[in-house]
Amino acid sequence: MRLVSMVLCCSALLSLASQSAAVFSAEVNVYSARQEELIKPVLDEFSASTGIRVNLITGNADELITRIASEGRNSPADLLITTDVGRLYRAKQQQLLQPQRSELLQQAIPAHLRDEAGYWFGLTVRARPVMYAADRLSEADKAELADLTAERWRGRICVRSSGHIYNQSMVAAKLAHDGTAATEQWVRGLVQNLARPPRGGDRDQIRALAAGVCDLAIANTYYLAGMMNDPRDQQAAASIAVYWPEQDSRGAHINISGAGVAVHAPNPAAALQLLEFMLSDSSQQWYAEANHEYPVRPGVAYSETLQSYGDFKADTLPLERLGELNAEALRLMDRARWR
């Protein structure tokens, strides 16, 4: 009897040890277009909370999508994290993502910031307003998007190239709201008013604005916020103010950073668990404070820097439309010679 008890006891301990090892040997493979320092603290917190190891691969957003496609069924990718809904839409269209059903995600993320069928989900909101040189202009010099084609802005606007998906999505949003003819007329007028041929990223447009190359710029707010917290760019950023366009109509243009579970994910349950963790209040708060992006989850406070830009009404256009209209937007921008 005693021997049987010892055997049962040992078996129970072995079973418990096996279960424990299984928990701590679990892993999830993340392909991220976000730089390591902009995401790793959240992933480390997830591992500490769950015992699931996160293997992180970072890279160019478009190249990561191409990589998943080329790896096919042998891809180790569990979760794709990338920027701009246009890329998430492209990954979905290439059948690189699988749909997820999660009550937590549905409740945490407003419907227009996630795929209706569950293929991708917004993680943060990115706003793309008009910025102006506060030492040369005032908010009284309203710069609604429609106004950017006016004669008074001739040679006074900076914006990055049409090759970047941020601008493609902005034009796609205008297509959805205004149609092809009106949008093409607007793009042609904007191009005519540029201070210089487009070059560089959003930070370069902000630096040019501060240096007097232009008086207005179109850029994402997290770039300006990052510059305000970087000693190298603080002086330039301090001279820039944010104007929120379209506040009496559709609202300011927004986009997202987001994620989707890979179609051949070897660890889909862990991938969904990580995705849900990134929508927790603590993760959303970290994103808001560290990356200066707007939380996708309502009720989470902005960073102090973002609060300094004021509250704004955001466009609630379903972001899926931006992906659907991306090709048309790019053709239109090419016709308008937006380089």
Low-confidence stretches are 1-24
Binned, the helix content reads: 40-55%
Task: Name the shape in a single word.
Answer: globular
Task: Kindly report how far apart the N and C termini lie.
Answer: 84 Å
Total DSSP E strands: 11
How would you portray this structure in words?
- By secondary structure, this protein is of the alpha/beta class.
- α2 links the parallel β1 and β2 (53-58).
- Strands 1, 2, 3, 4, 5, 10 and 11 form a seven-stranded mixed beta sheet that branches. The chain has a four-stranded mixed beta sheet with strand order 7-8-6-9.
- The protein contains 15 helices and eleven strands.
- The chain has helices at 2-25, 40-50, 61-71, 85-93, 103-108, 165-178, 180-192, 202-211, 221-228, 234-238, 268-277, 281-291, 304-307, 320-324, 326-335, and strands at 27-32, 53-58, 79-83, 97-98, 121-127, 130-133, 157-158, 216-218, 240-243, 254-262, 294-295.
How would you concisely characterize the structure shown here?
This protein is an alpha/beta fold and 339 residues long. It has helices at 2-25, 40-50, 61-71, 85-93, 103-108, 165-178, 180-192, 202-211, 221-228, 234-238, 268-277, 281-291, 304-307, 320-324, 326-335; strands at residues 27-32, 53-58, 79-83, 97-98, 121-127, 130-133, 157-158, 216-218, 240-243, 254-262, 294-295.
